[in-house]
Specification:
Blueprint: E1 6-10, E2 15-20, H1 32-47, E3 53-58, H2 69-86, H3 88-99, H4 101-110, E4 116-120, E5 123-125, H5 127-134, E6 137-141, E7 147-149, H6 163-170, H7 173-182, E8 185-186, H8 188-193, E9 199-201, H9 206-215, H10 239-256, H11 261-273, H12 278-293, H13 296-313, E10 329-333, H14 337-348, E11 352-356, H15 360-379, H16 385-393, E12 395-398, E13 409-412, H17 418-428, E14 437-440, H18 447-450, E15 460-465, E16 474-479, H19 485-497, E17 501-506, H20 513-530, H21 534-544, H22 550-557, H23 559-573, H24 580-592, E18 605-606, E19 614-615, H25 619-622, H26 634-654, H27 661-672, H28 681-688, H29 690-704, H30 712-720, H31 724-727
Parallel strand pairs: 2-3, 3-4, 4-6, 5-7, 6-9, 10-11, 10-13, 11-12, 13-14, 14-15, 16-17
Antiparallel strand pairs: 1-2, 7-8, 15-16, 18-19
Length: 734
């Protein structure tokens, strides 16, 4: 018996060690070949009377990220082909049988009659953690990098290889549901306290500890297969159960707004599964898993948040002919909150940082921001004081521009003003090396015009970070008219080096993300001026799938910024380019009322020192009219808030600002939280079809104005039955 993805060996005491180490991969993943070899390993352990039990571990620095989702996509393609030949009923049976093979394999391991133990180091999530749950004993390393969990919900799925049933039998029901709803990844100590693992040990000892358990006579019977097993929370139909399930349903609806079928499937699978024996429970789980895997939400989320994001992170848009670069030292101009935060994430990635401001005190203040951020990580147990010392040692705070002489990259992050940025660019160019790429961090100013301040325009590029930089994963890389491939490649390499996801955007006013999200905010403003109750607007935003309502979002980014954007647009493009009702509302709030948003404690909301924020009662007086809430079509409110963003995304494609649909979708979810269950702005259109979307746009335009009018591109796509992913087929990763 030979293995490709595993190594199999037996020690003198008769304990087998199955080491998972896939060749040519940095991380182990579950594939059909891996499943086949694991099946053979189980048979080998069972058949050999000299083998007492088996320990499964990883030969890599981390255990496994779970299943290869392209394998799951393959099941969907197989369904379509079988359905054409044999009909949907046979196709669904084949689909169900195929998607539950992993669950059946794990159950075979669990009931094989010999003890299995898992020795886990690094990441062990999804189907890999389900493998460990099927083992009879689990030892995890005490490394800070070790994480276990079931994050499937984040890509529109739920644990379908026994995870929902085993976790719910190891933990209190409410804790198990919360873990799966959130998709949290747990450190070893936390997992042990929650009853998910048995031991935590130094990485050098985990295999020995697992073997010792087997040698000491570890039981090959899972707790739920024993006659005396009792559910941690008692029976579903019990006083405790009746306190759990109504609350769980309420939490589900509050958190998902019924937009995520996988979350409802978790409720069903656990509720139904806890009432029957394990084998029946696993079959129930498999039925729900097959149903969810075929849902449009899962398909969209897998494509955008796994496949597309993975391809972008690996350099799908990077010019292939440019040699890879690695930034050793970066110069950051402007030590305000944005510049200092860019310095923090750069230093966190091991890059030396020269943080420059107009005087030493300002530069030192910027470095203090990094001190505060890493201290917060220490307080949460995610970093040590040694980590802080090392990070701060990599940051040189100074007012001496001469220290830029040996940097590999410059990121300018001074005040968002054309003249201020131009002066900084002209001052820096003579100091830096002739091959250094110059990047400007801006959210509004065109890159092409800023590049006029730099003699080597081919080496000038835009890098738009989102705030707060340390938490936001998206970075827009903006290509100006004269930007060269070397600048683009360097910018993409830098963004990947600091562990962010880049999208490439061609130069235009507002780039991509801001154009879309400002439409969302504007729609909230206009709804308010139409007389829609403020709370209804906010709830409609969350019901549509956005993380916060448009009024709340505007408070976070600042009302005075929205006012400045409206005024700048009016100045540059004329009065017809803005909506007078939006201008009137912002004037009342900002100019006359001094309400700037969260930053000064008053905006659309009031922010008391103690207690939660509350909508400002004075908003009602600003509304010219008041609509009857019962007469308002909530479905249309939700549509308006999503359509206004998606139609703008379509315009950016028509204008050539976005050239790859993967970037539009990934950028919309990571950049401004566009309803993840849709797969992103363009997937939202593709999901309903261009013809249906155009009809919806035209209906909304007739009722609410030309801002909803579909561009010519969409009209053409509707006639031809095109989709964005077919018409603008993404380029393959480099």
């Amino acid at each position: 018996m030979s293995f490709t993805n595993f190594r199999f060996e037996t020690d003198a005491d008769g304990v087998a060690l199955l080491t998972w180490d896939m060749p040519g991969r940095s991380m182990n993943v579950i594939t059909l070949d891996v499943m086949s070899e694991l099946d053979q390993a189980i048979d080998k352990v069972v058949a050999d009377a000299e083998i007492k039990g088996c320990v499964v571990t990883s030969g890599k620095d981390t255990f496994s990220g779970g299943a290869d989702l392209t394998m799951l996509e393959g099941f969907s393609r197989q369904f379509a082909s079988v359905a054409k030949v044999d009909g949907e009923e046979k196709a669904m049976q084949a689909f169900f049988d195929g998607t539950r093979k992993l669950s059946q394999l794990y159950r075979k391991l669990e009931t094989c009659g010999k003890p299995w133990a898992a020795a886990i180091n690094g990441v062990c999530v999804g189907g890999a953690f389900e493998l460990s749950l099927a083992c009879h004993y689990r030892v995890v390393s005490d490394s800070d990098k070790t994480r276990v969990g079931l994050p499937e919900i984040k890509i529109g799925l739920f644990p379908g290889a026994g995870g929902s049933q085993r976790v719910a039998r190891l933990m209190q029901t409410r804790d198990a549901l919360q873990m799966m709803f959130k998709g949290d990844q747990l450190r070893g100590e936390v997992a042990q306290k929650m009853g998910l693992v048995h031991e935590v040990a130094p990485v050098v000892d985990i295999v020995a500890k697992a073997k010792a358990w087997i040698k000491a006579g570890g039981s090959p019977v899972a707790p739920w297969d024993r006659k005396d097993f009792r559910l941690p929370s008692g029976k579903v139909y019990s006083p405790v159960g009746m306190m759990t399930w109504p609350a769980a349903n309420a939490i589900y609806r509050r958190e998902t707004m019924d937009n995520y079928p996988a979350a409802m499937a978790i409720l069903h699978a656990v509720y139904e599964g806890l009432q029957v024996p394990m084998d029946t429970a696993l079959r129930i789980e498999s039925r729900w898993f097959a149903k969810i895997l075929r849902s449009k939400e899962a398909a969209a989320m897998i494509r955008s948040l796994f496949v597309s994001m993975g391809e972008l992170n690996k350099g799908a848009r990077r010019p292939k002919e440019i040699a890879p670069t690695k930034v050793r030292k970066v110069g950051i101009i402007g030590a305000g909150f944005m510049g200092a935060s860019i310095g923090y994430v750069s230093a966190s990635a091991g890059i030396e940082v020269v943080l420059i401001d107009r005087d030493q005190a300002s530069a030192d203040k910027g470095k203090q921001i990094s001190h505060n951020l890493i201290t917060g990580q220490i307080n949460r147990g995610r970093a040590t004081t040694a980590d802080r010392e090392a990070l701060l040692a990599r940051i040189t705070a100074t007012d001496d521009y001469g220290k830029l002489a040996d940097v590999d990259l410059v990121v300018e992050a001074v005040f968002e003003d054309r003249d201020v940025k131009g002066a900084a660019i002209r001052k820096i160019e003579p100091i830096i090396g002739k091959d250094v790429i110059f990047a400007t961090n801006t959210s509004t100013l065109p890159i092409t015009s800023l590049a006029e301040n730099f003699s080597r325009q081919a080496d000038f590029i835009g890098i738009h970070f989102f705030s707060p930089v340390e938490r936001m994963m998206l970075v827009e890389v903006i290509v100006g008219k004269n930007t060269g491939d070397r600048a683009l490649a360097t910018a993409l390499d830098f963004v990947r080096q600091i562990r962010k996801t880049p999208i490439v955007v061609n130069d235009t006013r507002g780039f991509y993300a801001n154009r879309c999200v400002l439409n969302y905010i504007r729609e909230g403003h206009l709804m308010l001026m139409e007389g829609v109750p403020p709370a209804m607007i906010e709830n409609a935003g969350r019901m549509a799938g956005m993380p916060v309502g448009p009024l709340s979002l505007n408070d976070e980014v600042a009302l005075d910024l929205a006012w400045k954007i409206v005024q700048a647009t009016k100045k540059d493009l004329g009065a017809r380019a803005i909506d007078p009702q939006q201008e009137k509302l912002l004037e009342e709030l900002v100019v006359k009322g001094g309400r700037l948003g969260r930053k000064n404690g008053k905006g659309f909301y009031d922010y008391p020192e103690k207690g939660p924020k509350k909508l400002w009662p004075g908003l009602v007086a600003l509304q010219p009219t008041h609509l009857d809430p019962d007469a308002i079509d909530v479905k249309e409110l939700k549509q308006r808030l999503l359509v206004t963003q998606s139609v703008e995304a379509a315009r950016t494609v028509e204008e050539g600002v976005i050239t790859d649909p993967r970037e539009a979708d990934v950028g919309s979810i990571l950049g401004f939280g566009f309803a993840p269950f849709t797969g992103g702005t363009l997937s939202y259109i593709d999901g309903m079809g261009a013809k249906t979307f155009v009809a919806l746009c035209e209906n909304l335009a007739a009722k609410h104005g030309d801002r909803f009018s579909p561009p010519k591109l969409l009209l053409d796509m509707a006639v031809k039955g095109d989709t964005f992913y077919a018409r603008f087929a993404p380029k393959k990763a480099a």
